[in-house]
Amino acid sequence: MFQGGSLWAGLIRGSMLQAEDTKNLQKGQMNKTDYAVETTGNVTGAIGVMAGVEYGAVLGTTFMPGVGTVIGAVAGGILGDKLGRTVGHQVGSTVFHSQLGNKLLKPAVVDPVTDVIS
Question: Please, which domain of life does this record's source organism belong to (predicted)?
């Protein structure tokens, strides 16, 4: 299913957004929880682009082969990106802003004295 142009479109879009978020994290403009949420949105957005390009092209070809294929692929990619990022942000926010998410993001620091006493 995901091959050729749709695969590259999704990978490039997701990589660009992830690189920007990583830079913001390193500069201190974003905390780890927000970074995790953004990463979830970037991954699902990339998958949305891939699926949107594929299915948009198929739908466009159905209505008008040639030009419709291109228009459908572009429109599908844009719609897939928006939908994928929205779903990813919602899921990421739910998971990483919960108590379980906070435990997952907390560094595992072992203090032998405290661990023995408790």
Answer: Bacteria
| Burial grade of 75 (CB within 10 A; 0-12, 13-18, 19 or more) | middle
Report pLDDT digits (tens) over 29-38: 988 888 989 9
pLDDT at 83: 94
Q: So what's the pLDDT on residue 3?
A: 60
Candidates 18, 49, 50; CA nearest to 36 is 18
Q: 24: which 2 tokens?
A: 């913001």
pLDDT at 100 exceeding the cut of 50 = yes
The token pair that represents 75 in the structure block:
């429109």
d(CA 61, CA 75): 13
Residues 6 or more apart whose Cβ sits within 8 Å of residue 25: 31, 32, 35
DSSP run (H or E) holding 111: none
Domain ranges of the chain: 49-104
